Amino acid sequence: MFARDMYQRMWMGGLVVTMLVLLLVSGCGGDGTSQEDSAEDTTTAEDTEQAITSGDSGHAPEDALNAALEQSFAESGAPGVVAAVQTPDYTWVETRGVADRTSEEPMTPDVHQRIASVTKTFTGTLLLQAEADGLLSLDDSIDQYYEGVPNGDEITLRQMANMTSGIASYTFDEQFQEQLFSDPQRIWTLEEMVQIGIEDSPVFDPGTEFQYSNTNTVLLGLVLEQVSGRPIGDLYRERIIEPLGLQETSFPDAEDSSLPAPQARGYTLQGQDDGEPTDTTNWNPSWEWTAGAMISTVEDLLVYGRALGTGEGLLSPDQQAQRLDSFLGDDIPPNTADRAYGLGFGRESGWIGHTGTSPGYNTTVYYSPELDATMVVETNSDIASGDCSDDNPTLADSPHDIPCEEPAKRIRGVLAEVLGQPFGTEQ
C-alpha cells in the first residue's frame, strides 16, 4: 500500500459450503501439507506443470491448486502464505512456510495480518452507504467538508474514490517516507498526513488523469466521520464487520500497534540499507488509517470478498450496479477495458477486488462473477521477486528469470490460471 505506491501501481466471503470443505493446515516444519496428503511428498516439477496447465490431477481443482501454490510460493520468496478459494461447490484453504522467521512457527489458516489497501474497499462501501442514507452525494465537492484542498471546489467525492482527483498522495512524499522508516512507531495525526498531500497538490486537473492517492481515502474517512457524527472504526464495525459476521476483522486505534493472536509476523526491505528483511509486525499503522490500517484473516476475507463482488449484505442492488458501472475507461490511462479502477475497488480480467501492500504484508482479495469464486492470498512479506528494477529491491537469492511481482500477487496469478480465469500479463 505504501512505498509500492511510489512505483505507481494501480492498486496495488461465514463460510457456507454445499459439497466439500478442505481445511488444510500447516504440518511440521511449516510446509502446509494437507490432512489428506501422504507422509512423503513425491510431487515433481513435471507433475506441478501438468497440474497447472491441465487444471486436473485426479481431484480437480484441489490438487491443481495445491501444485500451483507449491510452484508460485517457491518463486515468491515469502516466508509464509495462506491462500484460499471458495465457490458454491468447495472451499480450498492452504498454507505454506512460516509465520515467524525466527521461531519457524508454521503458518496457519487463522493468522491475522494487516490487509493494507484492501481497507479502501471498506471505506468505499461506507461512502456508498452514506449516500444511500442521504448523508452526502458522490457529486459533492470536497470543499463542502474540508477547506484548503487545491481545486477543492471542483473535486468531487466520486473523483476521490476513483483516484482522479489530482490530490497528491502523502505517501509519495520523500520526507514522509524518511520520517516513517526512521521512526516506525510514530503516531501520525490525520492533519499531518492530509497537509502533506495538500502541499504537493494539485498533480493534475480534477477528472483528467489517474493517480493512486492515499490522501483521497483519508479525506473520505474524515468526510464520513463528519456526516455521520461517528468514529470511523464504529462505522466499519456497525455497517460492515458485524452485519457480515467478520469475527476476526478489526480497525485498530491510532495508538495500537499490536496484531491479535495468532499472527503472521511481517517482513520488508523497505527503508533498509543492508538488504536484510526487517520485522514490521508492530509498526504503528496510524499513517494508513482509512487507506490501509485494517486487520483480518483469510476466512473473514472470503466472506467479505464475495460480499464486495455481489453487494449482498452491503449495498442495495441499485447501488451495487452503480459501483460495478464505476470503472474508469481507457480515456483515463492506465485504465483499460480489462483493467480499471472504480469506487474504491478494481477490476482485473473479470475479477473484482483489491490488492493491499504495506511494509511486511501483501494481500489480494478478488471475486469472479463468472465463476462465482472468491480468491484470497495473504503473505507475510511485501518483498517482490523476479527481474525487478533497482528501486524495487529483492532478496539476494531471488530468481531473476521470471517477471518482477509482489508475493501475494504472484501466487494469485497462478491460482487464477488453474481456475480458468487468468489475470493479464501485467497483474
From TrEMBL:
<feature type="compositionally biased region" description="Acidic residues">
    <location>
        <begin position="37"/>
        <end position="49"/>
    </location>
</feature>
<feature type="domain" description="Beta-lactamase-related">
    <location>
        <begin position="67"/>
        <end position="384"/>
    </location>
</feature>
<feature type="region of interest" description="Disordered">
    <location>
        <begin position="31"/>
        <end position="62"/>
    </location>
</feature>
<dbReference type="Pfam" id="PF00144">
    <property type="entry name" value="Beta-lactamase"/>
</dbReference>
<dbReference type="InterPro" id="IPR001466">
    <property type="entry name" value="Beta-lactam-related"/>
</dbReference>
<feature type="region of interest" description="Disordered">
    <location>
        <begin position="247"/>
        <end position="281"/>
    </location>
</feature>
<dbReference type="InterPro" id="IPR050491">
    <property type="entry name" value="AmpC-like"/>
</dbReference>
<dbReference type="InterPro" id="IPR012338">
    <property type="entry name" value="Beta-lactam/transpept-like"/>
</dbReference>
<protein>
    <submittedName>
        <fullName>Beta-lactamase class C-like and penicillin binding proteins (PBPs) superfamily</fullName>
    </submittedName>
</protein>
